[in-house]
Amino acid sequence: MSPMLLEAEGLCASYGSYRALFGVSLALPEGSVMALLGSNGAGKSTLARVFTGLVASTGGTVRFAGCDITNLPAWRIARMGLVHVPEGRGVFGSLSVEENLVLSFRRRAGRSEVSTALERAYGAFPVLAERRRQQAATLSGGQQRMLSLAKVLAVPPRLLVVDELSLGLAPVIVDAVYDGLVAIRSNGTTLLVVEQQVDRALALADLAVVLAKGAVAWQGPAAGAATAMEGILGTGSVVDAGSRPGQPDSAGQPDRPGRPDSAGQPDSVGTGEGAGEMGRSC
Ligand SMILES: Nc1ncnc2c1ncn2[C@@H]1O[C@H](COP(=O)(O)OP(=O)(O)OP(=O)(O)O)[C@@H](O)[C@H]1O
Ligand SMILES: [Mg+2]
Question: pTM to 2 decimals?
Answer without folding.
Answer: 0.83
